[in-house]
Amino acid sequence: MIEYSIGKSVRAFTAGREDALPFDVTQAHQVHGYRTAIIERSGMTREELEGYDALVTNLKGCAIGVRTADCIPVLLYDPEREVIAAVHAGWRGTLVRIAQKTLFQMMSTFATKPEDVRAVIGPGICSTCFQVGEEVVAAFKDTGYSLEGIYSWNGGKVEGDLSTGHHIDLKEANRRCLIEFGVPEKNIQVSEVCTYEESGLYSARREGTDCGRNISGIILL
Fold it and tell me: What is the pTM of this model?
């Protein structure tokens, strides 16, 4: 179990392959989109939360979380208004800036101010292992991302060698999204753990898409 320290009144964590969840965690049926659900009661099912990739709540004792296996989990906490969020940011979600959309939902529903937010960017695939096609690079460029610092080219792609070809740093892209929206850089923690390299965590690229999922959750105590 990976634990994150972001406040006395909140607990944030990532549970991997061998970890039992410390709480019942409300989760959505994620679709690599951008929709955010406001959780107004405990015990909502994945079926009720079909098509959402981010959850926001101010309910104490209600853990919310996202399922990942190389995608990037982003956990948000507003200590001033006691609001939390869990965000599933794969490359498609990152592309449409789902972290910013979730922050906007926190602002519009609970009057969150970005400058108060504390954030965790949890374990996900690192840039070295996240080899992508030219179409993914083009998509990031076309949606207004500056590729400087999030993109690298490691020579012609060699089959079976993930270190070659085009690479995108999803953790850095999400960190920049948060900063652009007004979250102070000092308030953002970024995990150095790569799910592809860490055997204790599930990785769709290493094990196939039918593998299990890591659960990153957050709860107001």
Answer: 0.95
Please report, for residues 113, 116, 145, 193, the alpha-carbon distance to residue 83 in angstroms, rounded to integers and kept in the order given. Answer: 11, 11, 28, 26
Nearest alpha-carbon partner for 37 in 9, 65, 5, 60: 65
What HEC string does 13-43 produce?
Answer: EEECCCCCCCCCEECCECCCCCCEEECCCCC
The pLDDT tens digits for 125-179 are 999 999 999 999 999 999 999 999 999 988 777 777 777 899 999 999 999 999 9
CATH topology of domain 2-126+188-220: CNF1/YfiH-like putative cysteine hydrolases (3.60.140)
DSSP 121: E
Report CA 151 to chain centroid distance, whole Å.
19
